C-alpha cells in the first residue's frame, strides 16, 4: 500500500468528541442502576491453559514420544559401542608387531674326506658269512 493514497477504513465504533465520554459498562455483579450488588454466580472450573508451545498433546502421544526417544537412545549407544570396538581392534592390530628371530651364527663341523688308502683299510668283516646266516634262516621258513 502506498502511504500517499487515501485509505478507506470503516470504523466499528464512531468517534466520540473529547468532551462527551460514554459511561463505563457496569462491573460484573453490579446492576446497571447502581442498586445493591448481587452475589457472583458460581462458574464451571476453568480448564488449565494449554502450554505455550501449542495445543496440549494427548497422553498416548507422550508414550509414543517416550518410546521413540528410547529407541533413538539405543541406536546411538549401539553405534557408539560398535565404533569403540572397531577402533580398539585397529589399535591392537597396529601396535603388536610380530617378534622376529635373529639368527645366531654357530660353528658346524664339516666332514673331511678320507683318502683312498684310508678307505681301503676299513675292516668290513666277511659279508659272505653274514649273508650265509640270513640264507639259512630263509630256508627254515
How would you describe this protein?
The protein has 141 residues and is an all-alpha fold. The model has no long low-confidence stretch (mean pLDDT 75). The protein contains three helices and no strands. The longest helix has 37 residues, at 59-95.
Overall pLDDT metric: 75
Please identify the structural class as seen in this structure: mainly alpha
C-alpha Rg, in Å? 58 Å
The H/E string reads HHH
Helix content: 25-40%
The number of strands is: 0
Shape: rod-shaped
Counting DSSP H or I runs of 4 or more residues, the number of helices is: 3
Report the sheet with the most strands, covering strand number, pairing sense and barrel closure. none
Portion of residues in beta strands equals under 5%
Distance between the termini: 135 Å
List segments where confidence is low: pLDDT < 50 over at least 5 consecutive residues: none
Amino acid at each position: 500500500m502506498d502511504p500517499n493514497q487515501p485509505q478507506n477504513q470503516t470504523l466499528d465504533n464512531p468517534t466520540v468528541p473529547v468532551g462527551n465520554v460514554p459511561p463505563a459498562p457496569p462491573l460484573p455483579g453490579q446492576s446497571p442502576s447502581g442498586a445493591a450488588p448481587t452475589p457472583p454466580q458460581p462458574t464451571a472450573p476453568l480448564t488449565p491453559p494449554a502450554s505455550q508451545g501449542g495445543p496440549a498433546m494427548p497422553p498416548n502421544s507422550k508414550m509414543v514420544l517416550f518410546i521413540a526417544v528410547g529407541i533413538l537412545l539405543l541406536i546411538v549407544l549401539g553405534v557408539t559401542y560398535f565404533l569403540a570396538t572397531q577402533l580398539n581392534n585397529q589399535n591392537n592390530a597396529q601396535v603388536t608387531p610380530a617378534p622376529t628371530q635373529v639368527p645366531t651364527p654357530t660353528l658346524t663341523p664339516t666332514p673331511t674326506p678320507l683318502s683312498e688308502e684310508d678307505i681301503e683299510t676299513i675292516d668290513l668283516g666277511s659279508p659272505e658269512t653274514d649273508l650265509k646266516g640270513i640264507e639259512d634262516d630263509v630256508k627254515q621258513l
